[in-house]
Amino acid sequence: MRAQRPNSREKILAAAADVARESGPGSLSLDAVASRAGVSKGGLLYNFPTKAKLMQGLVEGYLREFEHALEAARTNDKDENLLAVYIRLSANDCEEKQPSASWIFSAIAEDPDFMMPIKTFKRQLFERLKGETPDLKSLLICYLAIEGLRSMNLFDSDVLSKDERELLVSSLLEIAK
Amino acid sequence: MRAQRPNSREKILAAAADVARESGPGSLSLDAVASRAGVSKGGLLYNFPTKAKLMQGLVEGYLREFEHALEAARTNDKDENLLAVYIRLSANDCEEKQPSASWIFSAIAEDPDFMMPIKTFKRQLFERLKGETPDLKSLLICYLAIEGLRSMNLFDSDVLSKDERELLVSSLLEIAK
DNA sequence: CTTCCTGTACCGTCTGGACGGTCTTGTCAA
DNA sequence: TTGACAAGACCGTCCAGACGGTACAGGAAG
């Protein structure tokens, strides 16, 4: 299953994300992705035999990346608790002006079931956090606030100023400590 | 501009929301909406000359309803502060198992610009909250956590149990006080 | 020879929307 | 009271375009 011509899949995935962001989530057509990736439609359909597989690939890549980032940040700050690591990592993600994952809307429009891996991933993460965080109240507040931050980033909604965002994050880290 | 056959517009709007929820946001076609509303396609296009107008109608109705609900809850608990009212109202909205506004994904897929009224509305609401809430830190945490709750409801993601949700809300109300 | 692609031609389906016709309702003059 | 008439509300049909997907002939590289 691994290892076609090394980077073709990655290029296509990146192209799909770009198209979704720039042309709008509803305009994620195979032709657009193919031309953006510098690949013919036949080539695209060789790597992803169907549009559903493409979406699935996007979701899996997203989850894989997040997991890696979390583990990396974890081993970096070995003394910090998991919740704090998660807060910092998410805040970093949301720093980028680019919504970074607006292809999610394409996936949902295509079929809401594409979100299922993400949902179960989040459930597992939350369970893990519950196991490692002593105070449930603090966890709930921090987790939900981060969820809110991610949501605002995803919807490209900039109601918070930079200062406010920083104040929020530092407050959450205080609570998580 | 007002007053067609009294309730035809409302019926169509409700039908559109139903179709989006049941058939998936990507399957919100005019035919589906028309048949669901018990109206011919011609009749639908008479009320909403274009699909964009339909989406616009959904957004406006959503905002109008929310505003009314907020004002109503406000006059009911005249002594409570705005943030607490907002928290309670949002928590109530998120109680429903039905995502209630999953047509939003349809609108985004159609054209992300449909979200602009919602964005400016939220910005205004946040400004209002800032004006009426003494402690910025509390406001940020509460507002973002509620945003997170709304996001989870919208994505139909049930990582929180009922008890956890209630604990969260009571904690937020404590902070907001 | 196999793998990985390119390029093109094509098909079936769906969708937004334009269009002309139809039924209903209100208005007003005689 | 009645009949004429116009505007409003809605129906059914049709169409051009876009899209996902298939099929197939080739070509370059290892």
What does this structure look like?
- 2 copies of one chain form a homodimer.
- Chain A is mostly helical.
- Chain A has helices at 8-23, 30-37, 41-47, 51-76, 82-95, 103-110, 116-132, 136-154, 162-176.
- The first copy, chain A, has 2 domains: 1-49, Arc Repressor Mutant, subunit A, CATH 1.10.10; 52-176.
- Helix content of chain A is 73%, strand content 0%.
- Residues 1-5 of chain A have low confidence and may be disordered.
- The interface between A and B is large, with 40 and 40 residues.
- Chain B binds a DNA duplex (30 and 30 nucleotides) through helix 3.
Could you state the order of secondary-structure elements of chain A as H and E?
HHHHHHHHH
Low-confidence stretches of chain A: 1-5
Total strands of chain A: the figure is 0
Amino- and carboxy-terminal Cα gap of chain A: 43 Å
For the largest interface, the chains and their residue counts are:
A-B, 40 and 40 residues
Assembly category:
homodimer
What's the overall average pLDDT of chain A, rounded? Answer: 92
H/I helix tally of chain A? 9
Task: Give helix % range of chain A.
Answer: over 70%
Number of domains of chain A: 2
Shape of chain A: elongated
Task: Classify the beta-strand content of chain A into a percent band.
Answer: under 5%
Radius of gyration of chain A: 18 Å
Content-based structural category of chain A: mainly alpha
Q: Largest sheet of chain A, described in full?
A: none
